[in-house]
Amino acid sequence: MDNTNELLTQIRVIIREEVKKIVKEEVRQVVKEEVRQVVKEEVDKLRVELKQVIEEKVTELREEVKKLNEKMYTMEQRLKEEICATEQRLTQRIDSVEEKFDKKTDNIQKDIRHIKLKLDAVYEKVAEHEEYKGKNEVRYDKLNRDVNDLKIFVRENEDDDNLKGE
């Protein structure tokens, strides 16, 4: 009996150890599964939170981009207005300068025509003078006076034109 008792004790010990191993393995499996489940739940929660955070950041960035686009558009409009105003001022200045230039050119052309007419008159007087030169001295003196009068007349007109030009 001793032997049987001993054998029974050994069997009990072996069974206990095997049961412990099995229980331990089962517990390990259960714990492992629970840990997996907990980790999975936590990962899912974190994914949802991360997704929300990312969506918030993306929304914020979109709003910032919209604001920057609006600022850029406003600045672009302001620059266009300034460019248009500058172009208009420059166009007005150019037109003003062209107008003054045209007036001065017209005045110069009038002066040139006037001078040509005076020169033609002088040439006519000189031609007449050449005709009179041979005939008598009285006519020569008259022609001389006419030329001198014409010179005075030309100088007076030049003085008047210079005063107008200034």
Tags for this model:
single chain, mainly alpha
* Order of SSEs: HH
Biggest sheet architecture: none
The helix/strand class is: mainly alpha
Gross geometry:
rod-shaped
* Unreliable stretches: none
Q: How big a fraction of the residues is strand?
A: under 5%
How many extended strands? 0
End-to-end separation: 151 Å
Whole-number tally of structural domains? 1
Radius of gyration: 59 Å
Mean pLDDT: 82
Number of helices: 2
Helix content: over 70%
Question: How is this structure best described in words?
Answer:
The chain is mostly helical. The protein has one domain. 97% of the residues lie in helices and 0% in strands. The longest helix has 132 residues.
Quick structural gist:
This protein has 166 residues and is mainly alpha-helical. Helix content is 97%, strand content 0%.
Tell me the layout of helices and strands.
Layout lengths: L1 H132 L3 H29 L1
Helix pairs in contact: 1-2
